[in-house]
Automatic annotation (TrEMBL):
Protein name: Ribose-5-phosphate isomerase A
The keyword Isomerase belongs to this UniProt entry's keyword annotation: yes
Subunit (UniProt): Homodimer.
Gene giving rise to this polypeptide: rpiA
Keywords: Isomerase
A Pfam short name: Rib_5-P_isom_A
Organism field: Haoranjiania flava
Length: 225
């Protein structure tokens, strides 16, 4: 079985009746969404679900998962989401799919945050992936200069040769900072730049990582927060 599917489906087993659930984004979290849909259909689970992207909203609708707008949800029991890189402390880089802002808003109100990934995402040190930074379109070139002063090589994200636009109408600067030594202070420094909406560093947020492996096994790594 696909390691992403293994991890995603295993995470869906943590969902219990009457919970409020955050639905993540990406090619791994989608397996959790599908499985949650199956569990609703087969077990009659009553859930309140809210999604981290338009893409995940569409997927949830496809699997007949009822959705509640974030405006009505002040606390989430469990969110299941993916990561682009995750280290031994379960600090992460996210945003490869451009969903980082909604993902961080949802992570911020989540009591138990489960990350699902294949083993290639589990790294000793964050940074090789680069850090996606969502910026407002106004003066994005000036925001990019500030990121350069912090040590980044920023690249404006494109999709099919057009500027990539996030679900929130913003741009993404993919920032190569090299390998990162102090991710928490870098996150703060990036967030202090005017024009930055959010960056893809997710520090001290995840509670559990479920890794799917090529040999068909899974590993759960848990940390106390
Ligand atoms: O913006 C996208 C999200 O942060 C994804 O969760 C992340 O990019 C991982 O996606 P995938 O499971 O497709 O590698």
């Amino acid at each position: 079985m696909d390691p992403k599917q293994l991890a995603g489906e295993q995470a869906a087993a943590y969902v219990e009746n009457n919970m409020v659930i955050g639905l993540g984004t990406g090619s791994t979290a989608c397996w959790a969404i599908k499985k949650i849909g199956e569990r609703i259909a087969n077990e009659g689970l009553q859930l309140t679900c809210t999604a981290t992207s338009i893409q995940s909203e569409k997927l949830a609708e496809q699997f007949h998962i009822p959705l509640t707008d974030i405006a009505q949800v002040s606390s989430i029991d469990i969110t299941i989401d993916g990561a682009d890189e995750i280290d031994r402390q379960l600090d992460m880089i996210k945003g490869g799919g451009g969903a980082l802002l909604r993902e961080k808003i949802i992570a911020n109100i989540t009591k138990y945050y489960i990350i699902v990934a294949d083993e290639s995402k589990y790294v000793a040190q964050l940074g090789a992936f680069g850090i996606p930074v969502e910026v407002v379109p106004f003066g994005w070139q000036r925001t990019a200069e500030h990121l350069e002063k912090l040590g980044a090589k920023p690249t404006l994200r494109k999709k099919e040769q057009e500027t990539f636009i996030t679900d929130n109408g913003n741009y993404i600067l993919d920032c190569d900072f090299g390998l990162i030594n102090d991710a928490a202070s870098l996150e703060t420094s990036i967030h202090n730049i005017p024009g930055v909406v959010v960056c893809g560093l997710f520090i001290s947020r995840a509670h559990k990582l479920i890794l799917g492996k090529k040999d068909g096994s899974t590993e759960e790594i848990t940390t106390k927060r």
